Amino acid sequence: MGKIAIIYWSSSGNTEQMAHSIAEGIKQAGSDCELFQVSEFPVNRIDEFAKVAFGCSAMGAEELDADEFEPVFSELEPHLANKLVALFGSYDWGDGEWMRTWQERVKNDKASLFDDKGLIVHSTPDEKDKKACNNFGMLFAKA
């Protein structure tokens, strides 16, 4: 199965909650995962991971965080080809445009996008959302 990295940025803690629920699902599926805030991820380690789940809250006009997340993600993009990549994040307003844009970007990077779409949660994850994140993690681990 290989190691799985979860790399995330969270402005309000909502995407961080999602990351932890996804990690629980991965571990319940019997896989090993490491959880990183994007500012703490050593980019030279990306090739150690067979699968990577990226999480980022929608910011501004529905875009990825430009200050911390975007620079690291851009640096990692050349390493995503042929990797299985999952995307997740929370948003407060809009309709999820940031996720659709991000999905296309990952596909253009020649990565394999898990479930052909990202997992999004409006605002703070409730119990139903946390279960969805947990299930997302289990399925990602088994993919």
From TrEMBL:
Its cofactor is FMN. It comes from the Bacteria. Keywords: Electron transport, Flavoprotein, FMN, Transport. Residues 4-141 form the Flavodoxin-like domain. One of its GO terms (molecular function) is oxidoreductase activity, acting on NAD(P)H. InterPro entries: Flav_short, Flavodoxin/NO_synth, Flavodoxin_CS, Flavoprotein-like_sf. Low-potential electron donor to a number of redox enzymes. NCBIfam families: flav_short. Belongs to the flavodoxin family. PANTHER family: ANAEROBIC NITRIC OXIDE REDUCTASE FLAVORUBREDOXIN. This is Flavodoxin. It comes from Pectinatus cerevisiiphilus.
